[in-house]
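Posting here for the record, re: DP6.
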Amino acid sequence: MKATAVAPANIAFIKYWGKKDEALRLPLNASISMNLSEAYTKTTVEFSKEFTSDQVEFFDAKSLDPQEILRVSKHLDRLREMKGVSLRAKVATKNTFPKSSGIASSASGFAALTVAGSVALGLSLSEKELSILARIGSGSACRSVPDGFVEWKTGDTSEESYAYSLYPSSYWDLCDVLVIVASSEKKISSTKGHEAVQASLFFHSRLMSLSERIERVKEGLKKRDLGILGPAIEKEAINMHAVMMTQTPALFYWTSATMDSIHAVIRWREEGLQVYFTIDAGPNIHLICEAKDAKVVAQKAETIHGVEQVIINKPARGAHLV
Ligand code: DP6
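Prediction output follows.
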């Protein structure tokens, strides 16, 4: 009754920001992402009669937020309910990247927990069922289940809202040069942020303008054309952060190092380097380029003031057992 799974973090090209059902985590819009090869979570789940309560260990974590343990335990309850058992579990989890600083730590975390937990309990679930379950743990986690380049359908019911692979990881040699400018945990979680989205006067116009960007992102992926994909994902990231900054309370995830990185990307592009940025719920910045340019982009990023770490990611397969 023990299993270990690995799940990648994912970077959203089209962002999930705002829910129509908080408890079920049904999103207000579809989103599109790419799984990241070097930013992942490895989780072992063991169920046993000997455990009297759920135990959660995060490798390297200084202290564990009780809310976080509760969120994991609630997710295990969903699996226990499906299997019809009440066994408690021990969960040991490790990230290859800083937790809770907007590199979708909950996405890879809940995808790995879902796969390891369901297998440890002997549940045999389809990719779609795993994606739905992961979504209820953390919305973006549903996109870490399928392979490569992924779309999460909005859906009106829980059964309709899941992610599926648009293209496998081998489809395009795209890279995400992840620039870590802050490895400390963010103060306001994305869950809290989603709740305040309607307060932004720009949120309605964001939703109205999304379908055009979704089409551009899909076209860029289909044609493997960064000249189409790049501007669309940059526009999308700026749009989501404009909504975040105009919510109540306002969410400013960017730091001065984020801003310096944005200016640098624009400058490098003017100099002929094909690279575009996107940012999730945190200050870290993802530089999207083709594999042939990834090393140069990474070397340049390392020289920006305030940059702590640079990780080159390729597209990756989804959550799987190890
Ligand atoms: C800005 O999936 O972390 O990264 O469902 O409340 O766990 P919860 O939110 P979460 O939100 C991620 C938001 C985002 C954009 C994205 O990944 O699409």
